């Protein structure tokens, strides 16, 4: 009995050991899984802590920039307030003082008007001078045309020639003028050549007058005709 009892106890003990071993192995597996999750969680925690550090640093930078901007804003606001105060003081002083008389700007306007009037007068004088020069040119051209007309209308006198005579008189150099009716040797005035010259001069005068204006050329040509 004792041997059978020992064998039964040993069998139970072996079974218990197997159960304990299985539980141990199961717990060891769970422990490994938990350790993996722990490591993962620790890594996430470290990354989040790093992100928090970055956010904290950015917050510090933003606070610094905010302080600078606030300081600049306060300085600008103080400057604008000072300018507004000065502008109000100037406006109050200008409203307290009487306005300047209205004739003061008029003096400057009168001086400007006088300068403009002086320029207009100079232009009028130049125009008057040009107008005076134009009649002078007309008179000179009319005098030239009149002289040409007188030269064309005046007849040419017959030329004086030496009459043939005896040898003695020719030796002494006596010259006999032929008055009255012309002899065979007397030449008549060249009317054809004179009329041609007069026509040429008339055409030149008309061309010159056309350059100065159609009306003047017509007047001069009518006068020549």
Could you explain how this protein is built, in words?
- The chain has 225 residues and is mainly α.
- Helix content is 82%, strand content 0%.
- The chain is elongated, with a radius of gyration of 68 Å.
- The protein starts with a helix and ends with a helix.
- It comes from Candolleomyces eurysporus.
- Residues 86-225 are annotated as: Disordered.
Individual helix count: 5
DSSP strand tally = 0
Rg over alpha carbons = 68 Å
Distance between the termini: 186 Å
Strand content: under 5%
Q: Give helix and strand order, one letter per element, not per position.
A: HHHHH
Largest sheet, in brief, is: none
**Low-confidence runs:** 105-112, 157-192
Helical content class: over 70%
SS-derived structural category: mainly alpha
Shape: elongated
> Mean pLDDT, nearest integer?
71
Provide the fold topology.
Elements: H1 2-96, H2 103-153, H3 167-172, H4 191-212, H5 214-224
Helix pairs in contact: 2-4, 4-5
Give structural attributes.
0% strand, single chain, 225 residues, 5 helices, transcription, mainly alpha
């Amino acid at each position: 009995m004792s041997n059978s009892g020992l064998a039964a106890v040993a069998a139970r003990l072996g079974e218990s050991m197997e159960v304990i071993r299985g539980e141990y192995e199961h717990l060891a597996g769970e422990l490994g899984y938990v350790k993996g999750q722990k490591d993962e969680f620790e890594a996430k925690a470290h990354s989040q802590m790093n992100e928090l550090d970055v956010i904290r640093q950015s917050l510090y930078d933003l606070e610094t920039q905010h302080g600078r901007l606030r300081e600049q804003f306060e300085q600008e606001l103080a400057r604008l307030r000072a300018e507004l105060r000065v502008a109000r003081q100037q406006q109050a002083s200008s409203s307290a003082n009487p306005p300047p008389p209205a004739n003061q700007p008029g003096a400057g306007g009168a001086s400007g008007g006088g300068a403009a009037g002086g320029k207009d007068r100079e232009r009028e004088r130049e125009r008057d001078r040009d107008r005076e020069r134009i009649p002078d040119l007309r008179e000179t051209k009319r005098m030239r045309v009149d002289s040409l007309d007188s030269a064309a209308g005046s007849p040419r006198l017959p030329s004086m020639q030496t009459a043939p005579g005896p040898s003695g008189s020719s030796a002494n150099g006596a010259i006999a003028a032929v008055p009255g009716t012309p002899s065979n040797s007397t030449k008549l005035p060249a009317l054809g050549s004179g009329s041609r010259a007069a026509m040429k001069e008339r055409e030149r005068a008309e061309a010159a007058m056309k350059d100065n204006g159609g009306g003047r050329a017509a007047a001069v040509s009518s006068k020549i005709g």
